[in-house]
Amino acid sequence: MDFALFCTRVNILFLLIALCSPCKFIQSPMDFGPLNFHQTTDTSSLDFGRIVFDSPSAVLRPQSPKEISLLLGFLSASSFSKVTVAARGAGHSIDGQAQALDGIVIEMDSLPSTISIHRGRESGSSYADVSGGALWIELLRESLRFGLAPRSWTDYLYLSVGGTLSNGGISGQTFKHGPQISNVLQLDVVTGKGEQVTCSPTESSELFFAALGGLGQFGIITRARILLQDAPPKVKWVRAFYDDFETFTEDQELLVAMPDAVDYVEGFILLNEQSLHSSSVAFPSHLEFTPEFDSNGSNYRVYHCIEFAIHDYQVESTDVEQVVTEISRKMSHIPSHFYSVEVSYFDFLNRVRMEEVSLRSRGLWEVAHPWLNLFVPKSGIREFKDLLLDNISPTDFEGLVLIYPLLRDKWDANSSAVLPDGGGRAEEQVMYIVGVLRSANPATCAAQCLRDLLRRRRRVAKVATDPRIGAKQYLARHPSQGQWQDHFGRHWDRFVARKAQFDPLSILAPGQGIFPRTY
Ligand code: FAD
């Protein structure tokens, strides 16, 4: 054993003794040889949800994947410690999923943020190698310098590559290109046993598919190879309004059936003036839609908005305006309530940043977010919408309700991501993602109010995931292993077997609350 490795082991041993000590004597940054542990930081027990605040005992800011490997290798070989380890990407989880109570948080942004772009000769052969802690906005900026960009996105880009690949990564491009986890060619992963493995669909494929959508349970993603395509200079961004839910969903399904023409499809339910304006940052000057939400107070009217986009490569042979007009003719939106703007591709993808800046300026970004995200089978979407509206008071709802269709065949069934299984019905190709993205403004919603919102979130999730609607939660932390088992359904045994293979002592991602740590 070389001397550096010996020192590291001795030093981690000291760390473990420190962590196990009842008086927790770690008070300042600690130099444990090549591994530099820090005292708990402000962010290590904080996430976007601001609902769970579990403090770790130490924070590792690794400079290389090797350091992560040394730590996990040591922990999995030492039989006396029950220390757990959570990778923390950008900390945009809702329920403490990147936290590790009394364990070690690894801050992934400390890894050197390397992004290298490879332009292939043929279409579909360009890719980026990017570190697991890098943000998608960084990848976008770098790839655009080469006229390239990833195909599949999330709405918000200040999320880490490893964090979204551990969940799915979805947005309005998912119907066309699949989720982000369907656009990965290769990964470097450090398993719970400390092994550094390069994996792909053909090389160590079990680990590759386990890690994609794997909730951080099988290993820490330190590098991902992401598929790129030519980036359009501009995007035609369109909004159409509806006062009828059926017509709204029929038109969404019409759009996702036109992948050759349409590049992005989303939509939202407009519950009140605030939800109309909060999502209209790019449209305010000519959005002359002034709906009457309140028809005499009792029978509340809601509206719906479809958002779609077409990449504008500004090629003479394609008149994007013409394409939009032809698509509009096929749609059944409220006549004359159809708006479009042309924006740069970067501004389009980075649109939620505008919303963030606006919310921050009003002190409404760093507040509690009792979000609920669900995949709902097409056959249950009408009933789910009624359930949701029965449990939401439009007058006091702050936030956004996103709803748009996805196509099941764009997801790889080998990945760990969980989709609805159709609740006994023949599996439908179309399913919906619904995001109830609610903010709890402390000025109007204090502790008791937040508890009520969380109770309502649980109630809606419970009814929605019953076989009658057959939904599956996305990005959720389930409260018990039994409920995780229900969530995974027929895929539970595979998930457990993968855990036994790659993280047998259940060291990783304790904040998901799936597997208790074992010796
Ligand atoms: P973290 O919260 O840091 O971590 C999430 C989980 O992944 C934890 O269990 C953690 O331990 C694990 N993890 C983190 N890094 C790694 C790694 N390198 N290797 C292995 N495991 C790791 N999701 C969508 O799909 N589409 C959206 O449009 C979308 N929009 C969002 C907008 C906002 C404003 C927010 C707050 C979230 C949004 N999300 C969206 C959800 C987001 O994708 C997830 O919360 C994701 O986990 C965030 O990435 P992160 O880097 O913040 O992860």
TrEMBL record:
Chaperone found in the keyword field: no
Record EC number: 1.5.99.12
Molecular-function annotations in GO: cytokinin dehydrogenase activity; FAD binding; oxidoreductase activity
Cleaved signal peptide residues: 1-22
Keyword entries, A-Z: FAD, Flavoprotein, Oxidoreductase, Signal
The keyword Oxidoreductase is assigned to this record: yes
Protein family per UniProt: Belongs to the oxygen-dependent FAD-linked oxidoreductase family.
Record protein name field: cytokinin dehydrogenase
Provenance organism: Musa acuminata subsp. malaccensis (Wild banana)
